[in-house]
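Entry 14. Ran structure prediction on the chain below.
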Amino acid sequence: MERSFLAFALYIVIFLLGMLIMKTGLQWLAADNIRRVLEKAADRPIKGFFTGTFASALMQSSSAVTIMTVGLTSIGALRFSQTIGIILGANIGTTATSEIATLHIGSFNIVLLVIGLICLIIPVKKLSAIGAVLFDLDVCSRQ
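Output, structure tokens:
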């Protein structure tokens, strides 16, 4: 019992230390241009919602998006009113990501795989991103 409590306490300390380190790093990075981008991305609740959904789908973790949002709020880069849409969108984005992973694409698996691999090879950033999504859809649909 004591060992479990000590392990739990250690993990909490590591988590809080990680939050502190992230906050410090965000303070260093949060220049005026980043603040402007964040202001535009979440100035209205619906934009914050879509920002949170996209970030959660991109990072595959609503917890990471939530922690980053709290960190950005604590350094003053985001207002509390902006965080509500972002956190709600992050949670819905995680749900949407898991739903996409359960899709049965059927006979399009080979087509998605080939198109995804071709797009991944092309050195254009947007095409590589599309290729990664198509490739991931194919791989996830096989499991």
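Residues 82 and 127 are 31 Å apart (CA to CA). Will compare against last week's run tomorrow.
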